[in-house]
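Hey there, shall we discuss this one?
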Amino acid sequence: MSVLHLSRMIPVIAIVGRPNVGKSTLFNQLTRSRQALVVDMPGVTRDRLYGEGKIGNRPFIVIDTGGLANFDAPLETKMADQSWQAILDADIIFFMVDGRAGCLDADITLANKIRLQEKPIFLLVNKTDGLNPEVAVADFYSLGLGDPIAIAASHGRGLQQLVTAALGASNEYQHLTKDPLQEEEREDSVSEQSQRSLETSDGSFDEIHEEDAEKKHSGIKVAMIGRPNVGKSTLVNRILGEERVLVFDEPGTTRDSIYIPFERQGHLYTIIDTAGVRRKGRVHETVEKFSVVKTLQAIEACDVVISVLDAREGVTEQDLNLLGFVLESGRSLVIAINKWDGLSLEVKQNIKKSLRYRLSFVDYAKIHFISALHGSGVGLLFKSVQEAYHAATKELSTSQVNRVLMKAVSEHAPPMVHAHRIKLRYAHVGGHRPPVIIVHGNQTEHVPDSYRRYLMNTFRKAFRLVGTPVRLEFKTSDNPYKGRRNTLTPRQIHKRKRVQEYRKKK
């Protein structure tokens, strides 16, 4: 599902400007989310980030872009390419400037470039809260982009009128609003709009959680995770067939989690390119700490994780820590060993031996050996993604689970504990993503880890649960006679003693 396809249906707004003028803050306000990373320092946003917004019954797409400033540095040049691609995709341009900093040379340079675009351009003077709006915008008339509009993105004031005017300037959107099918959709959405209005009583945008915004994305959510510079963004671009995210030969290039909806062979996906996670002791910058948090949130929000490892560096401790977090989160897993091309046969064999040993705790995940740069092996990843997703969401009946449990117990009985054997009586399904199987019996709190692994492997093999962990929960039945006093009659007690004495004599 490409942005160009979406732009034919609803208008696209690109937010551009110098670094640290408030573009990501405005993006979060318009999409009513916390999707874009906001830190009070320039250059945090590097890739273009897409989000969905709505004014009343008017939908639109917003693109957050990196700051355009130093075009001579290699990394900034790649960031500029991402921003210009967003401008080409957009129907409307929001050019943001800083009202407190005044009109700078970089603003003039950008204005001269943006003016060449034959698209509606809105000059937004941000950070005008506490200032006289007329004085704050006066300096920006020299840019020649029409009347500047004073806003305060952090508070959301005046944004509804701004977006309404922008959508009215898009001839494509005016044509779409006359579609009779959309008229029916408006009637169906009246109740929803009454519950969640875009404006609050003070004229600012409502603030909702990022999870609500992510529900808009359709299809299987796939998160790319790994250490810095292992090739995650290169792999994303290879899958999408375009330079969608910024790739640069420098660790830590990606700072935010980028959600990208697309379609592949008739299936819908949302791929999430995440920031590389280093060891905790090496994380010093505040922005990197936020990036790590966003990556861990992406793991919890996704359906399937593709863990990208560097074949030339092997499995490091940080790779194991990330995989451990995926396991604890219960997410389905596919492992991609990148940079496999160019290695000798002996090195490849040694790497495979090391993988079998070090990744034994996630032996349920399929391993693919790929080259993101050249594309070899990349196409096979999504077959494993589909298998892992369907395994995690597979419906299992209670009768099926009980048959597998009884067969496993008959073939390999639980061990003895305190001269009594552990009894596993029955089981049922307790949840999905990952599959949870609840086993009832006696003394289940003493089931050893080795027998737990035996049962997990048995269930996984019986139901073909590939790529997903299986969680077992044991529950011990209450003893109905626990706490009761002895109710035997004196005669029964005397008889029992005589029987015991007789057995001792024999």
Notes: The chain has three domains: 3-213, 220-392, 394-506. The first strand starts at residue 12 and ends at 17. The mean pLDDT is 77.
